[in-house]
Amino acid sequence: MSGPSSLSLTLRIWRQRQAEPRGGFLNYRLSGLSQDLSLLEALDRLNQELLLEGERPVYFDHDCREGICGSCGFLINGQAHGPRSGTTVCQLYLREFSDGQVLTLEPWRARAFPLIQDLAVDRSALDQLLMAGGYVSVNIGSAPEANVLPVGRELAAQAFEAASCIGCGACVAACPNASASLFVAAKLTHLELLPQGQPEASQRSRRMREQMDAQGFGVCGNQLECSAVCPKEIPSSLISRMNRQARG
């Protein structure tokens, strides 16, 4: 996006100190921002200013800032991870925005993701899904030889595509029903495509589906917003695959 070398932005941020009582939006004006800054770096600058003024900084999750860990997600103008497809918030640079633009930042909105503070939510419900079946059981002892079970190149590529899910929760936040179907389908697919994961495929699928209901996730409405906002561009066809196998 073309524009000035530096720009000003108004950040309209959801502020809420704890789960209750309900919070609200506050506006913060930042000027002289380099287009080469990421949005998280702009928040870092805002927090420095707030601390100098004796105010509480904006709470948001982050870790690797390399688009790998899945920690940093929130809504930007109502869109999970912002306007650029295939991008996490930490990889979203200010060059994507216009000088003087107002950006509304708010946390994921889902029953299964209770708010912690400001832009951060508790995504441990996804961990519970993995604990229910997102693994391959192994016997105690030394690791087996990696090449004992050959895997074809095409199959390995498909499994890797599914395994690229970083568990950020954007799919849940974007779904009108707050469904975790894309997340679960990715985890099921990347295990079931490989020979090591096939013996437990049926019980894994059943346990993870039951856990989705227990954690308060909604049902898939086939609107496919989940795939559209996924920073790793996990295809929605994995949900269809999961549903076909469940019926079979």
What report would you give on this structure?
A hairpin with a 2-residue loop joins strand 3 (75-76) and strand 4 (79-80). The protein is an alpha+beta fold and 248 residues long. The strands form two sheets. The chain has a five-stranded mixed sheet with strand order 2-1-5-3-4. Strands 6-7 form a two-stranded antiparallel sheet. The longest helix is centred in the first third of the chain and has 14 residues, at 39-52. It is built from eight helices and seven strands. It folds into two domains: 6-106, Ubiquitin-like (UB roll) (Roll); 124-247, Fumarate Reductase Iron-sulfur Protein, Chain B, domain 2, CATH 1.10.1060.
Structural topology:
Blueprint: E1 6-15, E2 24-34, H1 39-52, E3 75-76, E4 79-80, E5 102-106, E6 115-117, E7 120-121, H2 124-133, H3 153-163, H4 170-174, H5 181-192, H6 201-214, H7 225-229, H8 237-247
Parallel strand pairs: 1-5
Antiparallel strand pairs: 1-2, 3-4, 3-5, 6-7
Helix pairs in contact: 2-6, 3-5, 5-6, 5-8
Order of helices and strands: EEHEEEEEHHHHHHH
How helical, in percent, are the residues? 25-40%
CATH architectural grouping of the largest domain: Orthogonal Bundle
Strand proportion: 5-15%
Largest beta sheet: what is the strand line-up? 2-1-5-3-4
Separate helix tally: 8
Name of the CATH first level of the largest domain: Mainly Alpha
Average pLDDT, all residues:
93
**End-to-end CA span:** 48 Å
Major pleated sheet: 5 strands, mixed
Q: State the CATH topology of the largest domain.
A: Fumarate Reductase Iron-sulfur Protein, Chain B, domain 2
Number of domains in the coordinates? 2
E-strand count:
7
Low-confidence stretches at least 5 residues in length (pLDDT < 50)?
none
Structural class: alpha+beta
Morphology call: elongated
CATH superfamily of the largest domain: Alpha-helical ferredoxin
